[in-house]
Each structure stands twice: as C-alpha cells, then as structure tokens.
Amino acid sequence: MLQALEYPFESEYILKKKKSIKKELLGEKTKRITKKIAVLGGSTTHNIVEILELFLLNYGIEPIFYESEYAMYWQDAMFRNEELDSFHPDIIYIHTSNRNIADYPLLSDTKEMIDDKRYQIKEHFTCMWDKLREKFACPIIQNNFEMPFYRLLGNREAFDIHGKIHFLHQLNEDFYDYAKEHEDFYINDIQYLSSCYGLDKWADPFYWHMYKYALCVPAIPELAFNIANIIKSIYGKNKKALVLDLDNTLWGGIVGDDGVENLQIGPETSMGQVYSEFQEYIKSQKELGILLNINSKNEEENALAGLKHPDSKLNADDFICIKANWNPKSKNLVDIAEELNILPDSMVFVDDNPAEREIINQQVPETVAPVIGNPEDYIRILDHSGFFEVTKLSEDDRKRNEMYKANSMRKKQEQSFADYKEYLKSLEMKAFIAPFETLYLDRIAQLTNKSNQFNMTTKRYSRSEIEAIAGNSSFLTLYGKLEDKFGDNGVVSVVIGEIEGTSLHIRLWLMSCRVLKRDMEYAMMDSLVEKCKKQGIETILGYYYPTAKNAMVKEFYALQGFEKIAEDEEGNTTWKYEIPSDYQYKNEVIERG
Fold first, then answer.
1. How far apart are CA 384 and CA 387, in angstroms?
2. CB 506 within 8 A of CB 449
3. Quick check: 432 and 484 in contact, CB under 8 A?
4. Rounded to 5 degrees, what are φ and ψ at 114?
5. Is a pLDDT exceeding 90 seen at residue 271?
6. What does R_g of the chain's alpha carbons equal in angstroms?
7. What is the separation of C-alpha 102 from the centre of its chain, rounded to a whole number of angstroms?
8. pLDDT per residue over 202-243, tens digit each?
9. Residues 398-423: tens digit of each pLDDT
C-alpha cells in the first residue's frame, strides 16, 4: 500500500504527482487482478478516471477503462455502441449529478406536475439501469444526487414540494429503492461526500462553467477514493480484522501506571466521552463481521482489568485474540494472523503511538497502520478510510466473530488428542453439499472474492455472474456448509466446473481459511464425483494458478488422486482425474447431509 494514497491523503499532492505515483505503483512487484471498468459520465470524467486508477492499483486491481464521451452516459447505455459492447465491462460506474437534471419543479407547478417530473427522471434512470443489467450482467455503481449549492426558498427548500432540495431527496429515495430491490447495484453517496467536503467548495460553479466538472477538481481524489472503496469491496479486497492497542487508544491513560480507576472512559469527562464513543464504534464493527483483537504492551492482568472498567463498552469477550505482553507488537501481529488463519494484509493495526505504527510499517508492511490523529479523530479517520466498505452483508458476516471464537475452542480441544483423526471425529462434523441455491448466492460470490489461500485459480465472480452460472446447464456447481458441536461455520467451500462433453473443467475450487485441515475438501471431492457420475462425466480436469497467497494448495489435486499432465514456465499446472467405477470415498470424518 502506498502511503500517499492512504486516508487522510493530500488531494493536491495526488493531483500534482499523479504520473509519478502511477509509475511507482506499476513498478511494484504486486500481482493484481485486471478489471474492465466503463465510466459513463454526465459531465467531464477524465481526471476522475486518472485518479481512480491510482487508488485501484493501490488496492491490487489493475483497471482497463472505457470512458464515454462528454455527457453521453444515457446514449451509450441505451443505444448500440460497438466499442462499449465489445469492451464488455466487468463493472459500470455512472457519474451523474444534479447538473444532469434539466426539469426541476417550478413555483407555478402543481403537485401532479411535480410528481410527473419526478416520474420522468426516475424512468430515465431505471430504464438505463435495466438495459445495462440485461446487456452486461455486471455490477453497476450509480451516483446519487448531491444537494444544490443555493436555496431559492431558504430553509423551506427542505419540505416544500417546489424546492430543489426536497425534489432531489425524493429522487435519491427512488435510487435507494432500486438498490434495495436489485443485486449488484450500488450507490456512490456523493450527497454524503459533498457534505463532508463542504458543499460550497464541492459545487464551486467555476469548475462547471470552465471545465464541465460537476465537482471542484480538488475534490476529485475524495470522489475517486470512495468509488475505489466500493470496487475493492465488490472484488474482495476489504480488510477482515482490527488489531487494537489499549492505552490511549481504547481509553485515555496507561492502565499499568494510572490504575483502572483513573482511566479516561465514560461520561464524567469530555475526553472520557470521546473514548466511550470510539469503543462503541469499534464494538459495532463486530456486527459487520470484523474480527476484533488486542495487541498491547501490558501485563495481561492489567489489560483485562481495563476491559472490566464499569464504563467500558468493550469487554474481553468482544475480542478473538488478546495479546497483552512485552513482545514486539510486530511479533504479536504475526501471531494473531496465524491464530486467525488469515494473512497480515487482511488486518488494520490501530495504535496512537507513531513509533509502534512505524515498526509495523517496517516489519509487517502488508498490514496497514493508519495515522489516526487525536482521539476525537479516531472514528472519522477509520471510517473514512473505507477499510471495511460494506457492499454485501450476509448472515455469515454477522456470525463471524462467534465462528472464530468457536475455532479457538476447537484448537483447545485439539491439544487434548494425540491422534489428529480422532480429534476430527470428536468434532461431530456435518456437511451439507448441494448445487448453488439463491439463498446463498451472495455468500458464494463473497467467498470467490475473499478467499485467497485455499483457492486453486483465484478467479473472482460478481453476484450476477454467480447467478448466471447457477442457471446455466453447462456448469456443475457445488457449495458446502459445515457445522460441528461448537457451531455452524456457514458456507465454506465452492466448486464451479464447466462441462465439455464427458469432461468437467474445474474453473474454481476454494475453501474458507477458517475450516482448513478439517477434511472438508475430501467431502467436497466425494460429492463432486457423485454429481459427475450422475451426469455421465468421466474425466475431471483441475487447474492450479499460483499466486503469492495460494502456495498451500499447490499439490492439492495430487492429494485428491489427480495426475499432473501439464505445467508452464509460470508454474500453472493442469491435472487430470479419470473417475473410476469403484471410486473409494476419501472423507472419513464428516457426515454428509
């Protein structure tokens, strides 16, 4: 991650140095996923595309852009356009603003006339969205409307049916209703962005009349960063865990020196209220499935005592791993990643001490350590950084902390067994494995974009693509749920195979890191063979494409009995499995339902 592109960034610097920043990013030896992004603009978009590219490259996404001609967003969407059709985007961003509304209410308009104007604008957009969804079946990001920079009716604008502000709020609600009813449709909330930036500056008319930009040029990095956060979330580039310091981070003061009773937390002081509000914000991250952990230079006894403060909003049970010791925080961080079975680049390290952040930057550079400012800035900086941008929220997300806590209990039980297979049997595991179902399509798409370690090809699929595959008889699909006596792990494994004659080509095989070494892969293999036999498939072809993160599955197909039949210079391998008539089931410890 390039520090110049981390929030809070200097927009002027990014705009001035965009060419050198791009050169530096492209010079990094980072494997990125490539995505085709169509930008359909209702105003000038050139600088937006240039800055958006920087943020996406920084997130590990290499974009290829199609950019519509000035203000031709609707024509590109609605009429035949060979260039756009052949481009076939992976994602579409529609950059419109209140400047694209030509027919606002007049003071002389009746309610019926105003309702008709709103309906016409709503139809203008919904017809376009429907057309794009039908044609490209890819995610769409749509700006909502920012408020106008003046109020003809003053405060009355907010509620009078003739007011622009009232009219735009209603149109925004129409956009939100469409987003609620359609998968893979996302709102880029420029109403919020412009209010944070300052509407007078954001909507400076000079930039519209001089360059036809719907926002001031200095605000473009803020806009591009927000779009990039949506895109990286869609493609599974979100962070997964918070690793938090304690002293002067979750509370004011040093618990070992000041004592629990003298910590600044709670309603008695203004600064105590600041820390309480921050703790409430952190606790709310659990509901999104963010894994909470502690990394503190402290005696564990003191750390736990601080969390028992009567005004503390967080307690020890809110955290998966608590590392309160005198080890280097870089070592604790790596240990936490190993215990959670996630990679260090999935974590955000939150510490008030710049020296500790610099050590993490040097020793564990994959982990982001944001400059969080003063205590009153903590929430704003973490929130605006977009580490955990929510584009989908599944039941598995809400249960994730409980699932990882259950994993901790499993590890403790494992230590009491000398024989690993006996330990697995003691878990009383049950798997439900079936073809893709509508109920789980969001979670399946989420897994394809988030799973990196146990992922044979690391192909990424949007929800729309998963839905299309599920309804295509040329594909064989499986998802696997796993539960045991400690709890339900939810959907943890996905297989997508493409049928060609009597052969099945495995396009995707992945498994969540939280169920590694539980033999779920063998249960999936057994179910896959059963499905193949029923459909007359005689041969399974598997593919492994190496990345910096999936080396652990390099020999996966060999363990399943496949024969390696090809390997190229980059280490991409092809494997073949002739299904025997007397196939011997591989799973011995999981009951399949």
1. 8
2. no
3. no
4. -70, -40
5. yes
6. 26
7. 36
8. 999 999 999 999 999 999 999 999 999 999 999 989 999 999
9. 778 788 877 777 877 777 787 888 88
Cβ pair 229, 239 in contact under 8 A: no
The two structure tokens encoding residue 182: 């359609």
Residues 225 and 244: their CA atoms lie apart, in Å, by 25
Alpha-carbon dihedral of residues 174, 179, 182, 183, nearest 10 degrees?
170
Handedness of CA 208, 212, 218, 221 (dihedral sign): positive
Cβ–Cβ < 8 Å for 7, 384: yes
Residues 456 and 509 sit within 8 Å (Cβ to Cβ): yes
Distance CA 415, CA 422 (A): 12
Under 8 Å between Cβ of 128 and 74 = yes
Report the distance separating Cα 503 and Cα 108, nearest Å. 69
Distance CA 46, CA 58 (A): 19
Give the type of residue at 107: L
260 in Cβ contact with 309 (< 8 Å): yes
- Compute φ and ψ for 583, nearest 5 degrees: -50, 130
Q: Please name the residues in contact with 337: beta carbons below 8 A apart, sequence gap of 6 or more.
A: 343, 344, 346, 347
Please report where in the chains the tokens 């956009």 appear, as a residue.
175
How far apart CA 253 and CA 388 sit, in angstroms, is 28
Q: How many CA atoms lie within 13 A of 387 on its CB side?
A: 30
